[in-house]
Design brief:
This protein has 2 domains: 82 residues; 114 residues, Pectate Lyase C-like (3 Solenoid), CATH 2.160.20. By secondary structure, the protein is mainly beta. The two termini are 60 Å apart. α1 runs parallel beside α2. It has a 6-stranded mixed β-sheet with strand order 5-7-9-11-14-15, with no helix packed on it. Strands 6-8-10-12-13 form a 5-stranded mixed β-sheet, with no helix packed on it. Helices cover 12% and strands 43% of the residues. The mean pLDDT is 83. The longest helix has 15 residues.
């Protein structure tokens, strides 16, 4: 097999070798050339004593598996001791928190806006408002206004330890609370939409809207 040497340069330095790998060529071509150099055109570097090797992969972004495949080829001769590897490693995608957590007291005239789901630890007083593109869960009293699914998400929910809002809104559906909310304790409830109509239910029924929250599923 003949491989044209164009993607890899091997440079001698005072205390070893530097492998300069092209960061623009297809990765498989790079591996093929590296194998060829070590097995054919550059066998002389494999016949001596231990040689320290520095690997430079330029601006190529590589996974751990790709980097290991390069190192595997370099380790095969037995006398090449890998001292360093410089490359741009693929970083794992950082997962956004499933739910942001905020705390405090939202007083009259104050507005809290959030992209995503929100767990709010505290009370929302009359005149206070929360707007979220996702779910709103309030570990406290909701006596102000809450708008979940602000960008049209009709699957969003609003839940509170004490549900006594001045107004609830999910996506474009608005519901004003019944008069009896002013005189009764309405604890641990959540609001959701069913066929375009807002419904209020006890929090332990939330698995009907969020089946993935049922820890006893399949038990």
């Amino acid at each position: 097999m003949t491989v044209k040497s164009k993607h890899i340069r091997i440079k001698g330095i005072k205390d070893g070798l530097v492998f300069l790998l092209d960061d623009k060529c297809p990765f498989e071509e790079l591996l093929d050339e590296l194998r060829y150099k070590l097995e054919h055109s550059h066998q002389h570097i494999l016949t001596g004593p231990i040689v320290h090797v520095d690997v430079r992969m330029g601006e190529r972004t590589v996974t751990d598996e790709e980097k290991e495949s390069v190192l595997d080829i370099l380790r095969r001769p037995g006398n090449l001791l890998i001292r360093s590897v410089e490359c741009v490693e693929t970083k794992p995608v950082e997962e956004l928190p499933a739910m942001a957590v905020m705390s405090g007291i939202l007083r009259s005239g104050q507005v809290l806006t959030h992209r995503g789901d929100l767990l709010f630890l505290g009370d929302v007083n009359p005149g206070g408002s929360i707007f979220c593109t996702g779910d709103i869960l309030i570990l406290g009293a909701l006596r102000g206004m809450a708008h979940a699914g602000t960008e049209g998400n009709e699957n969003a929910i609003i839940a509170a330890s004490l549900m006594a809002p001045t107004q609830l809104r999910i996506a474009d559906i608005i519901s004003r609370p019944p008069d009896e909310w002013e005189t009764r304790e309405s604890s641990m409830e959540f609001a959701s939409l069913a066929e375009g109509v807002m419904q209020i239910d006890k929090i332990h029924h939330i698995v009907r809207k969020r089946p993935e929250l049922n820890v006893f599923k399949g038990v």
